[in-house]
Structures are given as C-alpha cells and as structure tokens.
Amino acid sequence: MLNRRHLLKAAVAGGAAALFPWEGLSGTGVAAAGGELAQSTPFAHAMPVPRTLAPASTTATADLYDLRMREADVEIVKGLTSRVRTYGGAFPGPTIKASSGREVVVRQYNDLTVDTAVHLHGAHVLSEHDGLPMDVIAPGSSRTYHYPNAQRAASLWYHDHAHHLEAENVYMGLHGLYLISDPEERKLPLPRGAYDVPLVIRDARIEADGTLRYTRPSDCPHMLVNGKERPYAKVAARKYRLRLYNACANRYLRLRFADGTPFTQIASDGGLLEQPLERDELLMLGGERIEVVVDFSRWGEGRSVVLENAGALPTERPEVLRFDITRAGADPSQVPARLTTLPPVPQGTVEREFELRTFPAMTINGLTYDPDRVDVETTVGTSEIWTIRNVEAPLAAPPDFHVYHSFHTHLVYFRVLERNGRPAGARDQGLKDTVCLGPGETVKIAMTWGPYAGQYLYHCHQLGHSSGGQMGRIDVRAA
Ligand code: C2O
Ligand code: CU
C-alpha cells in the first residue's frame, strides 16, 4: 500500500496522472491483470439497512461516539469475501443519528495502515473539525471531532478526506451516513421509522477471488446498495421515504424505475425542498443526496419494480435494486404541498469565476491543490456569486465519467441560480452543497460564507479528481 509520502513523490515525479492507479493499464480494461468476475447474479442479497450507532455516552448537551477505522472481511457479492476499510467494522459505516441543536462528538481511532481524515459532508463545523486533507489521523492514533449540528434537518455523510488517498479510502469503504433531524421535519406526516430508508449507491470492481479493487469507473461493473451487490428489498404497498446517496468515487448515476414510473422528490443535499417535485429520472454525481417518496401501492402487492441506472455502460447491467412488494401496509403518511421555508437566496456582492478542467490535469483555474496556497479569501457573512465552468467538450460516447465534475463546497450550502444561462430547473432546487457539471456546462451559485471563520475547501467530488488536485483552499476571515 502506498502511503502519502510515496504518493506525493509520485505526484512530483509523474504529474497528477501518476495518482490514478488505472493510468498505464491497457485500454482493454484490467481483465488482463487477472481475475475478472463474470457478471454476478443480481438480486441474490436482501438489502440491509446500515445499523444506527449507539452513543458510548451522553451528557446534557451532547452524544459521544467511538469509532475504530479498521479492515474487515465482508460479503459484497454472494459467496465471496472482500477485504474492506471500515468505520467500526461495518460496510458502509454505521449511521449516526443527530438532532439539530444537540452536539455530537466522535472519537475516531485509526487502526488502518494508511492516513485518514474524517470529513462530515454537509456540516457547519469549525475548521479543525472539518477533516482537512493535510489534517490527518496517522495509523495508530486517534482524533476527536466536534459537530455542533446547529443546522436544519438533512442527510449528511461522513467519509475520508486524506489528501491523495480519499478516493481510494472512500472506495474501499470509509463512508457512513449522518442524519440530522429537527422538530419542524419531525412534525411533517412523511413516512418514518421502517418506512424511511437510506440507499447508499456506489460502484465497485470485485475480482473472482473477492478482492475489491480500486480502479477506473469503466472497470467497475458492480453496483452496490448499502454494501451489497444489486440486492432486493421487500417492501409494503405504501409510501416510503428513500434517501438516495451517490457514494461512487468516480461516476454519475441516472436513476429511474425501469417502467418509467415517476416519484416525488422532497429533499436535496441540504434537506427539505419548499415544495415536492415530480421526477422520473435523477442524474446524481458523487456526493449528491436526493430524497424521494415512492408509493409502492402504485404497483401493488405481488409485483416487483427495478430501480435502474440509465447511465450504466453498454457493457454493464443497468439494474441497481429490485423492490418486491410483498405485503399490504397501512399508510397514514402524506407528502404535504408545502414542506419547509428555505432561507432567502443570498444576494451576492462578490463575484468569482472557476474553470474546471480534466485535461491535461485535474485543475481549478489552471491550478492543482496546494494546501499552503490560499485560493480564495472571504469574510464571515459575505454573500458571493460563483460562476463555475466545465470547459471540457462532450465525448462522442461513454465512458465519459471523467469529463463530468461535481462541484462541492465545505462549510456552506448554496443555491443554484442558473444553469447554462437559464434559471435553475428541477434538478438544481433546494439547498445544495454539490452541483453537477456536465461537459461544457456553466452554473452560477450563490452562498453566504460562515458561520465560522477558518480554512475550508471547495473541490470536485469525483474523488479521483480531488485526489488528483481538483481542489481549492478558501480562508474565511472573521468579520
Ligand atoms: Cu464529501 Cu470535501 O467532501
Ligand atoms: Cu472533477
């Protein structure tokens, strides 16, 4: 296993491309390197739901958790054992359930052989608790992160962020859910309890001997939901709230029901939308979350429906997950016509421009990440408008994953004002912390920096890209 020093040396010696383990592989894929697993049989596993982590202790104002990052052997494809990197032995990690206004403290022990840094994606946290790329937990040591949760209900996730290693660490399993609820959300008659289900979706390459191999996305034919390859889920003929995560290191998903049935989007990265939206396909890039309500009574008891990835390559199976509607279910839940009131759209007084490139290297405004270089300076309370351009041209055919970018800001949520010169449409609604840029696309986003001062980041959430340096440093000064 390469450690960070080796990787930094490799980066200096060979440019950013040297950071991608698939560089130098033949164009025919890694099959020649040995051990490709033939297509696995779909729907062999019942879909698990990640377990909820119990606090090690509680105080009047906080819940304290302990997690050990360690390797574990898990079954991803039926009958095969895969060695993965985990939080607490679970793949994906256990779910932390937080309440708005109540602090969570997580003590993370690194029992792995690589550096790690734990970032809570979507959280307003002090810089020293943000899991910055150089602020690592060395093997054998531990670190305590404080999360104030002074924010509205939303589906967050925690994942690795150690510089140059995050893509592989996340891919190997270092990701878990962190769900914040608040009284306003709890009052809504949305599906809850067993009818509120997260779907952590990601690709993988499992070799014939079970090895989980980190490689380019076009060589990752396996699709996992909550850690199992193309599972099935038994559901009742009623409404469910599904929290969808694209946890892929390097690819987009186009999720839809195979029969085209529409569903109702209720939330995006930063929690509830003001009004529900009818959708029939979701383009999701790495890091994005979308919550939907699906009414399985539309199909009825005894039927099945497949959630598929219309963005699968021609060589891949499109199926992601099969829902089997196996029973009737009383359904007191409803989707109200008005879900919440969002804070007003920030009126930006500072404008900035960012250009994202894939070729010849993963850059933002022509530069790769340098932790010692401040790319943007702002002050707490400043509202800004950022214009972000993906300057790459569309490719003639897929795989085109590497010409997409997923622009992500730490510390703040933003609103998407415009996409390609037009007002933001359905896919860009709500509070966002990640926005998808297809080749040639331009988006304008608005945010207000704060509430904390300190060093933060913005980067592409295709993690092979951020590992390759498509990342910038923003220093927020106290007002
Ligand atoms: Cu989910 Cu800086 O990332
Ligand atoms: Cu990118």
Describe this protein's structure.
With 479 residues, the protein is mainly beta. The chain has three domains: 57-185, Cupredoxins -  blue copper proteins (Immunoglobulin-like, Sandwich), CATH 2.60.40; 193-328, Immunoglobulin-like (Sandwich), CATH 2.60.40; 350-477, Immunoglobulin-like (Sandwich), CATH 2.60.40. The protein is built from four helices and 32 strands. Strands 12-11-10-14-19-16-17 form a seven-stranded mixed beta sheet, with no helix packed on it. The longest helix is centred in the N-terminal third of the chain and has 11 residues, at 4-14. The structure holds CU-O-CU linkage and copper (II) ion (CU). CU-O-CU linkage binds next to strand 6 and strand 31.
What is the compact description of this entry?
It is built from four helices and 32 strands.
Rg: 21 Å
Strand content: 35-45%
CATH topology of the largest domain: Immunoglobulin-like
Query: CATH homologous superfamily of the largest domain?
Result: Cupredoxins -  blue copper proteins
Count of strand segments: 32
CATH architectural name of the largest domain: Sandwich
- How many H/I helices? 4
User: In whole angstroms, how far apart are the ends?
Assistant: 44 Å
Strand order of the largest sheet: 12-11-10-14-19-16-17
The set of bound ligands, ions and cofactors reads: CU-O-CU linkage, copper (II) ion
The major sheet is characterized as:
7 strands, mixed
How many domains make up the coordinates? 3
Mean pLDDT comes to 94
Class by SSE composition: mainly beta
Low-confidence parts: 1-18, 27-34
The helix content is under 10%
CATH uppermost class of the largest domain? Mainly Beta
